[in-house]
Structure formats: C-alpha cells, structure tokens
Amino acid sequence: MGTEGDIGPGSGEIDDSDGGVRPALRIRTAETSTARRYGDFGYTVSGTGVTITGYTGPGGAVVIPTAINGVPVTAIGESAFEGNTGITGVTIPDSVTGIGDMAFERCTGLVSITIPDSVTGIGVGVFRSCTGLVSVTLSHNLTVIEDSAFRGCTGLVSVGLAGVIIPDSVTGIRAGAFSRCTGLTDVTIPAGVTDIGNWAFAGSYNITGITIQGPAVIGRSAFSYEDDFHGTGPALVNLRSLTIPRVTVIGEYAFFGSGLTGVTLPAGLTRIYRNAFENNASLTGVILEGRGMEAGIPFDEVWERYLAGSIGVDTSGR
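User: That's the sequence. What structure does it adopt?
Assistant: Structure tokens below.
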C-alpha cells in the first residue's frame, strides 16, 4: 500500500536497460569551437558535423542548409531559434540527428514543423510556449518525448490524430511534455509507450478522450492539475472517455479532478496509487475487468476516501 509521501511512478526520467537514467538531450557549442556565420545562420564545427547555434534572418519559412562549406549540418543547438517570433515554418534536413534544449522555445509564429526520421533525440522544452503551433510530425526514430517538449502549445489540436502524431518508436513521454496544451481534445498514445511522466498532459483541460494503447505506467498527476491537489490551473474537467486496456500502474493524482463518469480498469492493472481519482464528482461507476478487489491490487483507500460520488464497483469481470 502507498504511504504518505509515496508519490508513485513517473518521475519523468526514463530508465535505460542498464538501470541508469537517460539524461535530457543537450547540444551545446563546444568550448573549443569558434562561432561562425553562414548567411543568416550562426554555427560551430565540431568533429565532422556542423551545429546551428543561431538565426538572424527575416523569419517566414526557414530552410536549414544540409551542409556548410562541405560539412554536414548534424545538429540544431540549444536555444538556436529561441524567442524568434517571425518564424512560421522550418525545414530540417535529413542530415540532422539531434535538436537541443529549447531550440524553438517561444517561437510563437511557428505553425507547423516536420522532424525528419534522421533525428533520434530532441531536447527539453524544445517547442515550449510555441502558442501558434498547430501541426507537428515527429521522427519515427524518436524514442522519448522530453520534459516540457510541447508545454504551453495552446494551438495544438490533437495528439495521435491530426496535430501531433506520436510515432510507434516512442517509448516514453516525459514530465510535462504536453502540459497546458489547451487546444488538445483527443489523445491517443501508441502501444510502444511504457512510461507517461508526471504532469505529462496536466492542465490540458479541453481533452475529452484519452486512449492509451500499451502497458504504460501513468505518472503522478499525468492527466490532472499541473500542481496536484493544490489546484493551480484547471484539471481535465472535460474528460469523459478513458480507454486503458493494458495500463499496469496508475500514479497518484493521475486523474484528479477529471470529468469522468465511469472507468473500466484492465485485468493487468497491478497498482493504483493514492488519490488517483480524487475529486471526480461525476464518477458513478468503476469496473474491474476479470478480477475482484481481493485479487491483490493495492488501492490505497481509493474506494473509501478518494472516489467522490456514489460509486458502484463491479468486480464480476467480463
């Protein structure tokens, strides 16, 4: 059973197979490199690749060169385009393999972007507060969507449908990756995702439906307030549909304050942390597929204390 202070899974850190923690992607200018100019772009050369470090052009549709002076462009550096409100689109060449932290943060004029399949990593907050961003196509070789990657992208319409397509290669969505994306209405998370980080979609209050296809661990407040029970910002009060056929763990406060009226919990669920469904005033029915409560799922008093309303719990299985 959870204890006071037991915050549950989903720290936003994704464990590597060797038991370590995969750090956020940071692409910085090497100390030994000298910043150079190529047209509107600032860049450095390190080894056999060029990193774009800045942009001073007029904006609009920006095309990043494939190579500079015969050396391939392999990375977009940390904060390279940060705060450039004049950019409406960016073409990233197939030579690029990594995009650094906050590379496009606060590019509020950016409407759409395609990240080519050559890219295997994107940094923390890479598109944070890009309020005009409507459409994103992610690399099919991306494995993790980093912390706050799309936080505050209020123009995004949907995840997994039209808007942001989460490729099957993704295994983890880190802390706050899609928090405060108030334009989202539907979320579909593919079967390969096994870790949904803390506050991953927190404050995205217009979401009405969530489908999680795989055996994911849902982190703390993943679909709730951004600041848990303190109630900073709105919870997912419009959420009506939750489809989680293979989810294995639901973290504390995961769906706190949502508008759910009924929940079906899958047979493979192994743990619900405390307060997971607290303050769900409209919740009137819970079904546990294929097992009863006596089968060993630790519910941490969730039935007695934290499911508001008149709850009917069906443990007969079907």
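The longest strand covers residues 49-55.
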